[in-house]
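Team,

Forwarding the record for the chain on the shared tracking sheet. I've put the sequence and predicted structure together so nobody has to dig through attachments.
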Amino acid sequence: MNQAIRWQQRFENFQKARKKLLRAVNAQKEDPDEELYQMALIQAFEFTFELGWKTLKDYLAYSGLDQISLPREVIKQSFHHGLIADGQCWIDMMESRNLMAHTYDEQKAREAIEAINHRFLDAITQVYEYLKERS
């Protein structure tokens, strides 16, 4: 498949996931104690993060860097090439996603929700805006 088409198709899915994440953020803010909204927010974040780093990977491949496959390396290269403004935030997202995908602890969930609302959403939006300008 053509690399330009691949990254653009992945970006479309990333856009859809980001919209769902925004809906989950808003629902959770309206009723912060509702456990279903908390779970939905965490799941939407995990899905959006996954599509985000894979979109970055495809964009890097389109740009000629096609030997990168692991999330941490994609994040590092994306930061190095200016696609990501806050590389540490993306590393933190990756670690949070890994933790939430393999364990459920209420305290960790609250910490993840706090990070999603106050750090991660902004970093996801920055990448979204960067890639939107190039699509």
